Structure to design on (110 residues):
């Protein structure tokens, strides 16, 4: 499986946080921080916009590192992705993403 596919099936290669990180693009970090702050109703600073990818060793956004229930569950279950988890079809953690994102379902082979 492609290493930039997150546990939930989203493609980290297209994530603006990862793009800002690998290009050291502070302008993009500011744009993403502002957008994510508005979307999530919490303060996200440009300094938080650093991420190598969900399943890649290296820096993560605070959300991806420790707040994402999907990532924490997958790490605890020691699965490659949610697509390899026996409970994926009834999982309440990943169902919102899989229910709204056809690409994520395809990335997980579902």
């Amino acid at each position: 499986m492609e290493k930039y596919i997150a546990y939930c099936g989203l493609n980290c290669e297209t994530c603006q946080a990862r793009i800002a990180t690998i290009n050291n693009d502070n302008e993009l970090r500011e744009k993403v921080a502002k957008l994510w702050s508005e979307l999530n109703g919490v303060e996200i600073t440009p300094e938080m916009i650093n991420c190598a990818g969900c399943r890649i060793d290296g820096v993560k956004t605070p959300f991806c590192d420790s707040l994402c229930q999907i990532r924490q569950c997958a790490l605890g279950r020691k699965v490659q992705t949610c697509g390899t988890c026996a409970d994926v079809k009834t999982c309440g953690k990943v169902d919102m993403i899989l229910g709204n994102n056809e690409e994520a379902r395809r990335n997980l082979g579902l």
Notes: The radius of gyration is 14 Å.
